[in-house]
Amino acid sequence: MIIDAHSHVHDPVEDHIALLDDAGVDRAVLFSTRPHPERATDLKMLRREMAVLDKAIGGRANGVEGYRAAWRELDTALAAYPHRFIGFRSVPLDLPADQIAETIDRDVVGHGLRGIGELTPPPGRADLIEPVLRAAADHGDLPVVVHGFTPTTADDLRTLARLAAGYPTVPLVISQLGGLNWMDAIELVRDTPSMFLELSTAHLIFAVRLAVKELPDRTLFGSDAPYGDPVLARATVERVTTPGEVRDMVLGGTAARLLQLT
Hints:
The protein is of the alpha/beta class and 262 residues long. The protein has helices at 13-23, 43-57, 65-80, 97-109, 130-138, 154-166, 182-190, 205-214, 230-240, 245-258, and strands at residues 3-8, 27-31, 85-89, 115-119, 144-146, 172-174, 195-198, 219-220.
């Protein structure tokens, strides 16, 4: 089974299904989103959508109300294609710990979703995910996915590794190969057994090659669609691997194990 471990809701959702079909991807982990860059038809529209993204990944768009529309879009996409999408749901990180736990119980577990994410703590505040890890552990060790590209810092990655060590049964996935801090991300994930590294938006092909070499059973193929393309992301993995067990793990075997699909 080929599993894209990182994608966001598209408008229209049928465009996303077409991308997965083109890439030969069986299923995709689906996160909600507030920006929709795929809607843009010119630079002005794209700037507007990317401004929304900048606020979201910078942790300046928290609060439950800011999530509700995105959650509704996610629910609609999951209902339309339940056999293609695997739902994850993010949670506001500026809530008290008990409210974070309640939100995960009600809106993640209660909706039958498979994990939590993509979380976007403000730069320098990766510590805010600690209540999420605690709640994930309380609910059978749900996987937790955290944004790894800018504005996530190298210090944030170290904080995430420290927190992961405190919750060793909870799979903690760093997205986008840790962005510009990819060497730090590879080392930290290598040395923290409960951490995984998702490979989307890598800007250097040898970064992907080294990540897979160091972490053959803890790297995950992902596209970050619509920001990336599943066809190109899959081709990148296949370019740096040979047919066999490692490629199969990266392209879906490890994700299937994390998501308890096998």
